[in-house]
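Researcher: Please generate the 3D structure of the following complex. Treat every line as part of one assembly.
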Amino acid sequence: MSGNRVLVVDDDADIRDLVALKLQSAGLEVETAFDGISGLSAATNGNFDAIVLDVMMPGMSGIDVLQALRDSGNQTPVIMLTAKNQEHDIEAGFNAGATDYVSKPFSPRELLARVNSLLHRA
Amino acid sequence: MTLFTMDALTWALLGVSAVSLLLLVAMIVLRVVRKFHEQHLARLDVRVRPLVLAIAIAEPEELPELFNKVRELRVFARLQTTDTAARMLAEVNGESRRNLSALLTDQQIVAQALRRISSVDPVRRARAAELIGLVNPPSAIDVLTKLSRDRNREVRIVAVRALGRTTDPRAAEPIEAMLRRRKSAPAWISASALLELNAAAGFQLDNFTMNRNPSVRQIANTLASLMPSPDTGQLLIKSLQKDPDRLVRVSAARALGRLQSRVAVAPLAEAAVTDPHRSVRVSAAAALTQLPEVWTAETLSTLLTNVHEVAVRRAAMPPTSTWPAEGI
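Model: Done. Output below.
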């Protein structure tokens, strides 16, 4: 899986850095963005193999980012990070074109397994 | 006399000015100290976060060395490490939760929290409850159950939430006890704690059907549909048919719609026509539309044909995409 590039978008620095570190420890190349707008810009301009996208972000939400990406024709696989029991977020994420989702609190190991699974499929 | 008065006035003004000046200086000093403290904490956080992150994703054999690095830190950095770990703990599961909990145990933070449950300060007791719920040491359920009966309402609320976070099935009983007691904590707090706990055995609705508080019976109906057990359908039907409170009957109708059980069709259809309260009739009709069409097509068609009450007919209408032909 080394050489694959993953974008992590989350406004919570703890989560963002934790996910980035876990993915890097598995040999993935990781870029991070701290909000929806910079995440959309990075996803549009960078050539990523997968995106880990938080749903709840101030300003532009993860769902908005995903919708904008899909509207522009970007089909990069996206894993949504949602709060536990937020079925509406999960449904909205899949409707907007999410590939998978992980509920918070989450296991970084499980998230890595899901990212790897997406990269294998791609 | 005038001179004395002038003199006194001057001294009084000087006194007030001096006190004001002192207060101003004190405020400035406090702000500077607070800003310095915040900057210091931010610098410490930057220093220790990589270590906490490394611990969060470490393999078990890597932990002793990383814990040694924490032990070697100076006292403020070590305190910041445990603060950062406690903050992260709420967001993670699996190995990260285990590792961060082990760090807090190693740093005696859990032992300290267990001591603080007897503190006279309710803020300390509440913070202790929060941490104990996240780390879930062996005594967590007993300690949090005790705190769920604390004299302070805020501590009780935090303790119930913490019981939910333990994800330990043994926590279901004390949370349900909280849900039954009127003055312990708001019913919705206990309800969301139960949902967070996601009790594998399902929610035991029969413990709540006789509760004297209608809002508790109402929440219990909703919870039962989200965490059903084998007898949930029958108990909800009984609630729909017999409960004296209309809002409880509304919650039973909605819960039956969510439950997706075929036994609910006939009781819902009956309630849509015969319940004495309009809101229950409407909720029952709406619940029928949530059930699979193969079970309800005939019942809904009969309702739309025979019932003249507009609100019930509207609630019984299928989604706009499948509107029936004119005249039905």
